[in-house]
Structure formats: structure tokens, C-alpha cells
Write a structure and sequence with these properties.
Elements (H helix, E strand, L loop, with lengths): L4 E9 L6 H9 L2 E8 L6 H8 L2 E4 L10 H11 L4 E4 L11 H11 L3 E5 L11 H18 L11 E4 L3 H4 L8 H11 L5 E5 L14 H18 L14 H9 L3
Parallel strand pairs: 1-2, 1-4, 2-3, 5-7
Antiparallel strand pairs: 4-6, 5-6
Helix pairs in contact: 1-2, 5-8
């Protein structure tokens, strides 16, 4: 790509030295800025990312479970130099090659935030049945409690305008930042949102930091508690879970 996209790409990392250089180099081919936020790595993640061309920020904070995913994302998004901020996980599972398409879609729809969904799965995408079940249950919870046809409440990829970040009032420091930012956007009537279907790949390097059962239960409680704490009008875009209309809308979100 001759002209890089005017976006800031934020990647939260912990102990991803094995694969972060390749991810950063791919990202720098399209993004004007790549920010790697290092959260208490004990390997050479920060050094490797910097050598590959990323802007590296240290974020030492962690939540009660020792996770700093949310703190890292919030810190990176606030530090971004460009108006459009794109997030990716540091494990290389999200599609850098679809960022331009997501940005174009966001522009056509003229929205403040674009949620990137790995579901419905196509072409044998790399998500275990256990994770699929968990995400389906949480998506269902969001549809019931918030009246919004959420396709992927746990996706780690989204595009958001930096100018609306302060109005989202993000507080979560751990894994719950992922549902929090989406729910905050849904609950804020002044923020326009849409969804876009993306591909998802196998992790090539390193190990996942999540403990699925514990994390899943944390998400389940958080989604319920967040709704109780914010007894405000919601976006009434609900369709019955098993209706033809729902599955039609799920197919339409693919690009």
C-alpha cells in the first residue's frame, strides 16, 4: 500500500515476543501508527516490538485476577495520535488484511464505532466449540438484556473514533473491557455503531492467557451487573433469537 491509512492500531501484549515482530511489520504496511502496550511481560516483547517499528507503551496495572488487558487497551487508545483507533490482540488471530475494508465500511455507514464480529463462522474459522458456546451464551444475554443483536460480544477487534472515547467512561482493567466498551456504546444513544464480519485465524505463537471458565463467569456477571447499574433506555433493535430475520441479519453482516 502506497499511502498508509490514517489510523492508530493498538495491540495489548503480555509475553508475545515470539510473534509480535511479524504482527507489527504486517500492521505497519497499512497503518500510520502501531502502538504496542506491554503489560508486565517477562520476555522481550517490548524490545522486539520496538525494533520492529512499533511505538511501545508500558502499562503495569492489573486487575484482581492479575490481568491488565483492559488497562492496556484504554491506555493505548487514549495515547493514539489519529482519530480512528483500531484494536487487535497480540496473538495474530485477527485479520490485518481486512482493516482497510472495515475502515471503508465505517466511513460508508458514518458511525462512531464499528464492532468486528468473528461470527457467524465461515470457512472453518479457528474458534473451539467451547469458546463458540460461551460467546453464543453471552451474545444471547446481551440480546435479552440490552435489546441489541450482538454478533460477537468478546471480539478483540473494533474501530472507534478517539473523540468519543471519553463519553464511554471505561473502567474495566481486565478481560471485561471487551464487553464493557461494546455495552457502553450500545447504552449511549449519542454514539452510532454497526457490525462487520471478519475472519479469524489460529494462534501461531505463544499461549492464551485466559482461563476460560473463570473468564466466562466473570463476563456473565459483568453483563448482568452493567445493565443493572445503567438503567437507561437501550437501542431497541431486538429480534427473536431463532427468527428468520435474525439469521438473515447475521448473514448480512458478512463482507
Amino acid at each position: 500500500m502506497k499511502n498508509k491509512l490514517n489510523i492508530s492500531l493498538v495491540i495489548p501484549c503480555r509475553n508475545e515476543a515470539e510473534g509480535i515482530a511479524l504482527l507489527v511489520k504486517k500492521a505497519l504496511k497499512i497503518a500510520a501508527e502501531v502502538i504496542v502496550v506491554d503489560n508486565q511481560s517477562t520476555d522481550k516483547t517490548a524490545l522486539v516490538a520496538k525494533k520492529a517499528g512499533a511505538r511501545v507503551i508500558k502499562e503495569p496495572r492489573v486487575d484482581k485476577l492479575g490481568i491488565g488487558y483492559g488497562y492496556s487497551l484504554t491506555r493505548g487508545m487514549k495515547a493514539a495520535k489519529h482519530e480512528i483507533v483500531v484494536t487487535l490482540d497480540g496473538d495474530g488471530t485477527y485479520p490485518i488484511d481486512q482493516i482497510e475494508a472495515t475502515l471503508n465500511f465505517m466511513g460508508r455507514k458514518n458511525v462512531d464505532m464499528l464492532l468486528c464480529s468473528r461470527f457467524p463462522l465461515v470457512d472453518g474459522q479457528a474458534i473451539s466449540w467451547w469458546r463458540q458456546l460461551g460467546v453464543w451464551l453471552l451474545n444471547t444475554q446481551v440480546r435479552l438484556f440490552y435489546g441489541y443483536d450482538m454478533q460477537d460480544i468478546l471480539s478483540g477487534m473494533w474501530l472507534v473514533k478517539k473523540s468519543v472515547l471519553s463519553s464511554l467512561k471505561l473502567n474495566e482493567g481486565g478481560w471485561n473491557l471487551s464487553p464493557e466498551i461494546k455495552l457502553a456504546a450500545i447504552m449511549n444513544q449519542k454514539i452510532s455503531i454497526d457490525q462487520f464480519h471478519i475472519h479469524h485465524y489460529e494462534r501461531e505463537f505463544g499461549q492464551s492467557k485466559q482461563k476460560l471458565v473463570i473468564t466466562g463467569l466473570e463476563h456473565l456477571w459483568f453483563i448482568f451487573a452493567y445493565r443493572v447499574r445503567h438503567l437507561l433506555p437501550v437501542r431497541l433493535k431486538f429480534t427473536p433469537l431463532f427468527s428468520i430475520k435474525f439469521w438473515k441479519s447475521a448473514r448480512e453482516v458478512r463482507v
